[in-house]
Amino acid sequence: MITLHRLGHKLELFHLNPDLIVTVEGHPDTVITLATGAKIVVAETPQRVCQAVRAYRVEILAGAMKRRQDAREESGGNVSPIRPALIDSSELA
Q1: Exposed, middle or buried: residue 28 (CB in 10 Å: 0-12, 13-18, 19+)?
Q2: Please, what are the averages of pLDDT over each run of 10 residues along the chain (93 residues)?
Q3: By residue range, what is the domain housing residue 59?
Q4: Structural domain includes residue 84
C-alpha cells in the first residue's frame, strides 16, 4: 500500500493499493482514477504518486528476490526456476 493525503486533509493519511490505479493526472489537482471507476483527489503531485508506486513495487520485488535467494541457499543451490504449470485444455471443458 502507498500512503497519500486527500486534498484539503493533509493531516489525515490514507493507504491505497497501487494495483488499483489506472491513471494519475495533474490538472491542476492530482486526480487518481482507480480500476473501480472511483476518482480520488490527493495533495501529492503526480510525480510523487508515481515515485510511491515505484517504491512499493521495488519493495515487493526485492522481498521476493530475497526469499528466492534464501530458499536457494537453504537447498544448496538446487532450487529450480519457477515456471507456470501447464494445463491440459481438456480439463477445462
Answers
A1: exposed
A2: 93 95 95 97 97 96 92 76 59 54
A3: 2-76
A4: no
Grid cell 489537482 — which residue? 29
Give CA separation, 93 vs 34, 86, 89, 90, in Å: 34, 15, 7, 6
User: Is 83 inside a domain boundary?
Assistant: no
What would the grid cell of residue 29 be? 489537482
How many domains does the structure of the chain reveal? 1
Contacts of 75 (CB under 8 A, 6+ apart): none
Question: Residue 69 corresponds to which cell in the numbers above?
Answer: 535467494
C-alpha cell at 59: 519493495
Task: Fill in the DSSP letter of residue 81.
Answer: P
For residue 46, count other CB atoms closer than 10 A to its CB.
16
In a domain, 82, yes or no: no
